[in-house]
Design a protein that fits this description.
The chain has 79 residues and is mainly alpha-helical. It is built from 2 helices and no strands. The protein has one domain.
Length: 79
């Protein structure tokens, strides 16, 4: 199918080569975005365990959780 791509007056193999290079770059960009998204999900999951206690917990519970929450945020910021 790709071998049938040919522009007016252009060399078919040259066009095909350009298309494949662009496709490969798109694939690389998509994989980079996927990896970053997975990293973001992991990070947000580590913070998720703090959210409900912060919202519904007592004042003492919130005070007890804050150091661990700040540490989790700090670890992400350093990486």
């Amino acid at each position: 199918m790709l071998s049938a791509i040919k522009g007016p007056g252009d060399n078919c193999s040259s066009n095909l080569s350009q298309i494949l290079r662009r496709w490969k770059q798109c694939e690389i960009n998509a994989m980079d975005a996927l990896i970053e998204a997975k990293d973001n999900v992991k990070y947000l999951q580590t913070l998720e365990r703090f959210l409900e206690p912060l919202h519904f917990g007592s004042t003492q519970c919130v005070l007890d959780l804050l150091p661990a929450l700040i540490n989790s945020i700090k670890v992400r910021d350093e990486s």
